[in-house]
Specification:
The protein is built from 2 helices and no strands. The protein is mainly alpha-helical.
Amino acid sequence: MKEVTTDELNKITGGTDISASIINAFVNVIKLLIDAGENVGSSIRRVATNNICPLK
C-alpha cells in the first residue's frame, strides 16, 4: 500500500455543503407554511359558512 503524504491528505475533500440539519430546517419551514395555510383556509371557510363558535 502506498503511503499518503501530508500534501495529498490536505487536498482530500468529501461530503457535501448541505448538512442534515439544514435540510431538516427547510422541511420544518415547509410544514409550518402548510399548517398555516390549512388554518387560514379553515377559518375562511368557517366565516363563509357562518359556522363560528360563539363568544361567551
